[in-house]
Each structure stands twice: as structure tokens, then as C-alpha cells.
Amino acid sequence: MDAYRRIQTGKTGDVHMVVFKDKKILDDTVLDEIKKEIAAYLGKSSGPDVLLDFANVEFMSSAMLGLLGTLHRKIAAGHGRLKMCGIRPEIFQVFKLTSLDKLFSIHKDAPAALATFT
Amino acid sequence: MAGVDVLIAEDSRIQAKILQKRLTDAGHTVRWAENGADALELARERRPEIIISDIEMPVMTGYEFCKAVKTDPALRTVPLILMSTLSDPIDIIRGLDAGADNYVTKPYDPDYLLGRMRSLLATPLGDPAEEATLEVAVAGQKFRVQAGRQQVLNLLVSTFENAVAKNQELIAANEDLSLARDKLQQTNVELSALNERISTINARMIRDLEAAAKVQQSLLPPDDAALPAATVAWRYVPCQDLAGDFLNFFPLDAEHAGLFVVDVSGHGVPSSLMAVTVGRFLSPKVTDQSLLVRQRPDGGVAVATPAEVATQLNRLFQADEFSGLYFTILYGVLHIPTGRLDYISAGHPALLLLSGDKPPAYHGAEGFPIGFVPDIDYAQASLQLTPGDRIYLYSDGVTEAMDKDQNPLGEQALADCLAATRSQPLPDTVAGLLETVVQWCQPNGPLDDVSILGLEWRP
Questions:
Q1: B102-105 sheet: strands from edge to edge
Q2: How far apart are CA B268 and CA B238, in angstroms?
Q3: Which of B177, B210, B238 is at the close of a domain?
Q4: CA–CA separation, B289 vs B341, rounded Å?
Q5: Strand runs labelled E in A1-118
Q6: Element housing B235 (H / E)
Q7: In Å, how far is A67's CA from the nearest CA of chain B?
Q8: Under an 8 A CB cutoff, do A70 and B319 touch?
Q9: Are A70 and B319 in contact, with CB atoms under 8 Å apart?
Q10: Which of A69, A100, A103 is opposite residue B319, by nearest beta carbon?
């Protein structure tokens, strides 16, 4: 049984992997649960390297960007690195529209992203 | 009652053990057999002083056993208690016919059974000679039973006592029911009080929401808002009572006009609270808070550049960890005499320019949403309008409006829509765009706030 409802977690080397299970991240409640689950998962480690995998996500509200921003600042403050992967074109549009594609480190898929954590 | 010699006929080992223990505790000697045949054997071995027998048993039933005892000359005066569920009046007749002296209904109360034994032992059974043939009709059927008067009397009394005991149980059950009913009524009263409280709270929340919606209205242009040398038209449709979007335009000084569309992430109360807070900093009046205009030492008004405004906003509104709220803004300052528009975009959709007969063109400026990255400078872009040019600012509720298959309306459709209405008066083009968005979102309607602000420069 998975420990979390919204995210699947696992460690590859020193990188904490977070795979979003939802196809749609639109609802405020879903967003809130994701926020809490990520906090619970990363809570124990300080300044970790984190990879967020969006491969399952087909629709995402721009409110999710707020969460990513918070996470980005928090991880950077602990001298960790936050990277993202598996973002399909429609969702990448949300990043591009807000110029955040330039702020976040975004990669094609998990292997490509993991290769950059060295 | 001194200890007596009791014989039990009972096929359930557990029930027999329970009864045996009760009787032994009461000082009696107890023998137990698991059917009528074995019990009869034990009775003949040694005559018991009283017999207690179950009815449903293998090999020999309680009725057969009873009949055997009562027709045995050596045993017939031993009192016999039948334990019956007494579910049918026929059971009484069967007991009478078998010669039973007493009934105890199962499940029984042990104290009640002991009481029965006591009264039976106190009344010695009459002379068998008294026995007569009685005829009774039960449920339309005639029965002939052989029974002595004392036996009939005992059985009658035991049946009556059973009825009384059942009645008492019923009364007790009734009392429980009536207690439960009282409790239910009490709960009902509490529930309606609770309901009333919820209604009150609900009404208050609705009032608060309405008040908040009114505060939010104050962020929008007043009905008589106008700019010199320009026509402005706008539409604003929140998707809930409270929105994260707002827009406005106003003269900043004699030569400059400010215009913006703001989109706070999310919806509802948290977003709208943030919108109201942000709105106070985007005031055209010279106040301590306004980021748009400042008092100059010589008494005049200094207009801040869009880049300065964005940098200040970003300094003031770093997204806190808890709400995760941030906002995007497109803010422009139009130099009214020359038609030069300076603007910034903090993560906001690009503005659309319709110039002369040229096809619509998007003009964006790069910049992160407000609150994302601390201490950054925003790059300012500029646009030179020619007379009759139109610009449109909007929130992503327009381009990201989803149809029922989750397809966004998109930038191309927005441009096409406004190009098609180029010859119409500006207010009609804004209304037409809103209509396009609403149609696109059928049947559910927009899920995001929709803001549109159009301006036509006519010096």
C-alpha cells in the first residue's frame, strides 16, 4: 500500500522522487492534499535534492505553480535542488505563460532529469 | 427449602450445566440425563423428589418422558416441570395430556425456576384416583386429556404466572421504549437548536461574503471612469462570489494613464483577500501606500514606471509558505499625448495589439509572477500606438477557458475574435469576446475568473 494518496514517493540515489498520481490537479482540495503530502514526505530530510514527475498529469491549474514556487524557495534555502520532468506540452504552456519555465529546471523524463543531479 | 433430589432431562449440555450449578448452589442434589429415556432410567434407579425436563430432546421427548413418569405407579406423584417455549396454546394441552405439573417458559430466570420448585414441593400432588377425563377445545380442535384436579390447577397457575412474567417483560420493554422515545425527543430538540445555529452562522457568512464582494467591487473602475483621448471598455466575470482577478484604469497625472489586469492564483476568500490588499497599493491617489504615484518635493506628482511598480510589488508580496498565493499582473502606463505605452508583465498573458489593418499581434514582456523570486528587477517593454489602435489586456481565464473536452480557447481564437470585430465600437468587441468565452465553456460556464480590458487611443 502506498503511504500517500496523491503522490508516489521513492529514492533514487540521493534524489527524492515525487510522482503525482492525479491526472487532474485543478481542485483546491487536491492541491491542498498534495501540499501536505509533499511536506510530510520531505519534512524529515533537510536540503534534499527533489525530482517532481508530472508524467501522469494531464491538466493542472495555475494555482499549482504557487506550490511549486514555495517548494523551490524552501529547497533552495536548504541548498538542495528541485527539478521537474514528464511535463506534457499543454502543461508546459502554463509554465511558459508565466515565464516560470525559465525559473524551474525542467527535463524530458525521469532518467534525463536524474542524470543532471551529479 | 431443604436440599432435594432433582433430576434434569436436558439435551443441551451447556444449559444443563448452568441449571445444575444453580441448583447445586441452592443446596440441591442434581442428576442429569440428556434424553427422556436415560432420565426415566435414572428415575427408576432412585426416585427423585422433583423432575425438570426439556421438551425437544432426541430418543425420547419431554412429553413422552413425562407421560412415562406419570403412568409409572412408583413415580407418578413426583412433580414434573416442563420447560417449553410455549409458542402455541397446543403446547399447554400436550403438557396436560402428558401429565406435566408445571411449565416454565424458556428462556427462564433461575430464581423464578427455584420459586416454582418451592411451590410445587409445598403442594403435594393429589390422589391419582381424582383423575378424570377432561375435554377441551383449542383452535377449533377437540382434545381429551387425562388429568388430576391438582395438576390442572398447578398447570393453570404456572401458565398464568408465565403470562404475568411475560407481561412484566413487556411492560419493562415498553418503559425502555418510552425512555428511548423521550431521549429521541430530547435529541430532536437539540438537533433543531443546532440547525438554527447553523442557519444563523450560514446567514452571517452569506452577509460577510456579500460585504467582501462589495469591497472587491471597489477594486474595479467606477461607472463613470474615463480617460482623455482614449476609449476604454471592460468586462469582469468572477467564477465564484469572490474572485482573485481585478482590473482598473485611471489617469495618473495630466499626461499619463495607468491600466492593469491582476490575477491572484486560486479563488474564493484567500485569493480575494489578497486581491484587496494588492489593490490598495495600485491606487492613482497619492497616498503612503500607492506604488503608482508619489508626491514630488515641488508638490507635483511623480508617476512610477511600470518596472518600478513591479519590483516594489515583488518586494512587498513574497508568497508565504502557508497560502502559496501569488499573482500575475500586466501593468501599463500610457503617455496620452504621444500614444507610447510602457508596460511590464509579471507572469501575465501578453497583451493583444490591433494596429491599423494589420493582423492582431501579441506583445509580452518577460517576468516571473509577483512573489516567486525575491529581489528581482522587471524588464519593461514599450509599444508605440498610432491613432485608432486598440490594445486588449485580459486574464488567463480568457485563453485558458476550457470547453467540455478540456480544450483551451487559446490565443489564436482570442486574436481571431477581436480581428473579426475590428470595425465595431470598442465596447461591442469586449462584450463579443466575453460572449465567445462563455459560449466556449458551455455547458458548465467558465471555471476561472474572466477579465477583459480594451483601450482604443484617439488623440
A1: B29-33, B5-9, B50-54, B80-84, B102-105
A2: 10
A3: B177
A4: 24
A5: 7-12, 15-20, 24-25, 49-53, 59-60, 82-85, 105-107
A6: strand B230-237
A7: 6
A8: yes
A9: yes
A10: A69
> In the prediction, which pLDDT does A56 show?
94
With an 8 Å Cβ cutoff, is A91 touching chain B? no
CB atoms B325 and A66 under 8 Å? yes
Task: Give dist(CA B438, CA B446) in Å, integer.
Answer: 6
Both B90 and B167 in one domain: the answer is: yes
The confidence score (pLDDT) of residue B429 equals 97
**pLDDT of B243:** 82
Residues of B in contact with A67 (CB under 8 A): 324
The closest of B232, B210, B267, B224 to B450, measured between CA atoms, is B267
Q: Which domain, by its residues, includes B56?
A: 5-177
* B265 vs A66, A90, A97: nearest CB: A66
Residue B89's domain is classified under what CATH number?
3.40.50.2300
How confident is the model at residue A2, as a pLDDT? 62
The architecture CATH gives domain A7-115: 2-Layer Sandwich (3.30)
Q: Is the four-CA dihedral A10, A16, A22, A27 of positive or negative sign? A: positive
Q: How far is it, in rounded angstroms, from Cα A74 to Cα A82?
A: 10
Task: Measure the CA–CA gap between B310 and B367, rounded to whole angstroms.
Answer: 9
Query: Cβ–Cβ of B369/A35 closer than 8 Å?
Result: no
Query: Strand, coil or helix: what is B253?
Result: coil
Task: Provide the shortest C-alpha distance from residue A103 to chain B (in Å).
Answer: 8
Say if the ipTM goes beyond 0.90: no
Q: Are residues B166 and B227 in the same domain?
A: no
Q: Summarize pLDDT for B371-428 with one digit per residue, the tens.
A: 888 889 999 999 999 999 999 999 999 998 888 888 889 999 999 999 999 999 999 9
Residues of chain B with pLDDT under 50: none
Total domains present in chain B: 2
Residues in chain A with CB shorter than 8 Å from the CB of B325 are 66
CA separation for the pair B158, B156 (Å, rounded): 5
Instruction: Report the residue of B326, B414, B444 to disrupt the A interface, i.e. the one with the largest count of A CBs within 10 Å.
Output: B326
Q: Answer yes or no: do B99 and B156 share one domain.
A: yes
Smallest Cβ–Cβ distance between A100 and the set B267, B323, B347 belongs to B347
CA dist., res. B22 & res. B113, Å (int) = 10
- Nearest partner of B312 among B335, B293, B339, judged by Cα: B293
State residue B300's pLDDT score: 87
